[in-house]
Amino acid sequence: MNATITLATARRIMSQLRNDRRTVALMVLVPTLVMVLLYYVMDDERSFTAWAPVLLCVFPFLVMFLVTSISTLRERTSGTLERLMASPLKQLDLLLGYGLAFGVMACLQVALALSVSLTWLGMELAGALWPLILVALLNALLGTALGLLCSAFARTEFQAVQFMPVVMIPQILLGGILVPRDQMATVLEWISNVLPMSYAIEAMKLAVMGADLNGDFWRDVIVVVGSILLALGLGAATLRRRTP
Fold it and tell me: What's the pLDDT score for residue 144?
């Protein structure tokens, strides 16, 4: 990895994003708009406070996965990636550059969603704010990393979109949102234990409840960070220069 090349890649992607207002709006505004919609559908601050942390895990992950996978695939199918790979740019430089650029967008996304939820929508926290920010940001970065990984296996943008339910639905159903993980069948609990969103959701619950940030919280955070790094590493190993 070359830090100079990685930062140059991140600047190039940020420059492209500045000229793509629709993509920026999708990444930054959609999670907040969904939070607002949920608030008025429930019409109850207590119910909203119970469900808002879950959405702060799911929607940033979903949006960043979708945008990142399509953006990376578009560079490969257009031949841009092949030209870039003819330079000293390596696969890991490219993916880390993408991760940095979309990480900045993830920060904006999470900051807006949390600001609106805590002020206008009246979401209540029993503990400190920073653990909630940390977990929400890590989940957005997890969506970015998995989007980069899945884009390596897609040939068209439609195929990239098809990966979304494959990645999302098992993690939502088995992550402890609908049924506590320890009440699931043994096989399903085993599967849940290897899904990174399960740990993100558990960490978010601990952050919102104001519980002591003990070993369980930091274990969950470390698992999510490790999943991000693993996805980036696998993405670099499987990234193709172009799509046939």
Answer: 86
Using CA atoms, how far apart are residues 158 and 165, in angstroms rounded to an integer?
A: 12
Which residue do the tokens 């960490």 mark? 203
Q: Which of 237, 202, 29, 48 is nearest to 125 (CA)?
A: 48
Q: Which residues of 180-193 are buried (b: 16+ CB within 10 A; e: fewer)?
A: ebeebeeeebebbe
Share of residues in the chain with pLDDT > 70 (%): 95
Name the maximum alpha-carbon separation found in the chain. Answer: 56
Instruction: Report pLDDT digits (tens) over 191-214.
Output: 999 999 999 988 888 887 766 677
Side chain identity, residue 219 = R
**How confident is the prediction for the chain on average, in pLDDT?**
83
Residue 125 has pLDDT above 80, yes or no: no
Give the span between the Cα atoms of 182 and 241, in whole angstroms.
43
125: DSSP letter: -
Q: How far apart are CA 171 and CA 157, in angstroms?
A: 22
**Rounded-to-5 percentages of helix, strand, coil across the chain:** 80, 0, 20
Q: What is the pTM of this model?
A: 0.85
**Cα 129 to Cα 102: distance, rounded to the nearest angstrom:** 23
User: Comparing C-alpha atoms, which of 213, 68, 66 is closest to residue 134?
Assistant: 213
Nearest to 194 by CA among 226, 217, 165: 226
Which amino acid, one-letter code, is at 164? M
Least confident of 50-54, 103-107, 225-229: 50-54
Task: Tell me the CA end-to-end span of the chain in Å, nearest whole number.
Answer: 27
CA distances in angstroms from 180 to 26, 54, 177, 183, listed in the order given: 31, 13, 7, 5
